[in-house]
Amino acid sequence: MSNHRFFPYVLITVAGLIWGATFSLALIATGEGAHPLAISAWQVVVTGIFFVGFCGMTNIPVFRFRNLRHYTVLAVIGITAPNLAYYYAAPHLSAGILSITVSTVPLLTYAFMLFLHYESILVKRVFGILLGMVAILLLVLPDQGIEGNDANLWILLALLSAVMYTVENVYIGHGIDDIIDVRELLCGSNFVAFFMQFPLAWYLGVAEPASWLLTVPGLALAGLGIGSGIAYTLFFYSIKTSGAVFASQCAYIVTLSGVIWGIIVFSEEHSIWVWSSLVVLMVGLFLVAPNKKQDNQVANATVVSEHAS
After folding, report:
1. At what angle do helices 216-242 and 36-57 cross, to 10 degrees?
2. Which terminus of the chain, N or C, has less C-beta within 10 A?
3. 144-190: per-residue pLDDT in tens?
4. Within a 13 Å sphere around the CA of 252, how many CA atoms are in the beta-carbon half?
5. Contact at 8 Å (CB) between 78 and 307?
6. DSSP character at residue 75
7. H or E element in which residue 242 lies
8. pLDDT tens sequence across 11-36
9. What is the crossing angle of helices 7-29 and 250-266, to 10°?
């Protein structure tokens, strides 16, 4: 089966469908008023347990003190900060809008690397970044019919989450030695994030007991954590077997499936502005995606959205 010519497409399709569903799961997890810090704290537990098992099966180190600095940086910029921004914004937005904002990560990653002189200027990719900006403006400028007067604030907060994931990608790509497996980084950073978030949640009086995981929001969060882990595993395998260029196509599936899952689960109806934003974003992703003659760094960056959600 793994040698079949359609198998790589199966990998990225399944990964994209699962990742796309995490946006709807996030809405369910935040739907009954649990504090974002409490939700994030339990997510790192679920995700951490998944990666402990995954690393154990693949003989990857779970935690090494010599890499504690990297774990800590990723726990802050790749887990705690973006999770809080994401879970604060999620109850106020639709799954479709969440999927569009978070799926800007590949575009933002190239923009950051261009600014830091890690990438050379390519007109096609620069135009892709500009289209990404247009896609966000199509969400922010019109009235999306979101309850309350702070719709744009929640959209921008979700976008801040994407920015943090982008910083994490650039740090992994250029601040960490390639010999450190990214699965170890994710496992170790979840450990550190646990010790950051749980004590703070208890101190602030917003922590949820373990029994919360058996509620509907808790089960949704558990599904989100496990689903993200499975999707990431499939995505990582597709990179190893088919290359980062091919695997980067997963970004399209994640974005589209995020919108479709929102329609299926919540019967979401989107304005012409949201659909226009989706189309513009897809074109932008196409222009920024690398090809075989170019650096694959941006393609690897699509790990972001998914690890996050």
Report:
1. 40
2. N
3. 555 555 778 899 999 999 999 888 888 887 888 878 888 898 899 99
4. 18
5. yes
6. I
7. helix 216-242
8. 889 999 999 999 999 999 998 889 99
9. 40
Domain count, the chain: 1
Domain-located, residue 5: no
- Write out the residue range of the structural domain in which residue 285 sits: 37-308
pLDDT band at 9 (very low <50, low <70, confident <90, very high): confident
Q: pTM of the full predicted structure?
A: 0.85
**Residue at 30 is within a domain:** no
Fill in the DSSP letter of residue 91. G
The encoded tokens of residue 134 equal 């247009």
Q: Judge whether 117 lies within some domain.
A: yes
Place of tokens 């974002």: 36
Confirm whether 47 is domain-assigned.
yes
Q: Long-range pairs for 51-55 at CB < 8 Å and ≥24 separation? A: 51/183, 51/186, 51/187, 51/190, 51/229, 52/187, 54/183, 54/187, 54/229, 54/233, 55/183, 55/184, 55/187
